[in-house]
């Protein structure tokens, strides 16, 4: 009797999951599977596709634009997985340990860029990076470093770094909140005992703070690796992939290939590669974390 009641409760509770599962199936799993099928065809929006097997993937080997977009994707992945995480950790420790006044306001200020749309941020930084009395060039001139002024978006050597700096500014505030939450879970008695034993700030950081935040650091790195592959909106709001494709990213190249050039099959294969890169790197980070544990 009890077993029958448990089964009824299980089925009853499962019904509440059906709407979400149906939406997930309809808007994610089915399109993802269909996209993977498309990647094995040469097709456009007007003609029926022709099965070409792995030819789309083989074409990437000699595709210079794909290689550029892949390099830029790796650049943003490494950048996002390091600098914002380190900055967020440092700021979180300062706010948690320094007992400063107005820390709540500072948290909001640092987190605000993360929730602002990429379009709004792109418009703002058009003024910051403007070669005609832009904020950055004005500050450089004021402090005697006017020789460093550049056309930040117009120079192939600096454009990707200019966009990357915006990405760091946008995301480090969220990393800070992740680490602040982790620091609040850390037992304060550990720091007090370490002080009694004569441990300095650096030893406390290495032996207490880092071990207690390992899970948070892993989450932050994986989260920002994914963010590093999702810079399409920021790039389109700033450089649109230029100058000379120096900031072209994978998402942008996939969209251009599929819709501007009409090669849906090759565009689909590019999105499959993006997904695989994200999955492989995330699994690798989790595996390294598990081996360390």
Q: Can you offer a commentary on this structure?
A:
- There is one protein chain.
- The longest helix is centred in the N-terminal third of the chain and has 37 residues, at 2-38.
- The protein has a single domain (62-292), classed as Orthogonal Bundle (MetI-like fold), CATH 1.10.3720.10.
- It has helices at residues 2-38, 55-59, 64-97, 103-115, 118-128, 135-142, 159-185, 188-196, 201-212, 214-228, 232-238, 250-260, 264-292, and strands spanning 41-42, 50-51.
- It has 293 residues and is an all-alpha fold.
- The mean pLDDT is 85.
- α4 crosses α7 (159-185) and α10 runs antiparallel to α13 (264-292).
- It has a two-stranded antiparallel sheet.
Produce the secondary structure layout.
Elements: H1 2-38, E1 41-42, E2 50-51, H2 55-59, H3 64-97, H4 103-115, H5 118-128, H6 135-142, H7 159-185, H8 188-196, H9 201-212, H10 214-228, H11 232-238, H12 250-260, H13 264-292
Antiparallel strand pairs: 1-2
Helix pairs in contact: 3-7, 3-10, 4-7, 5-11, 7-10, 10-13, 12-13
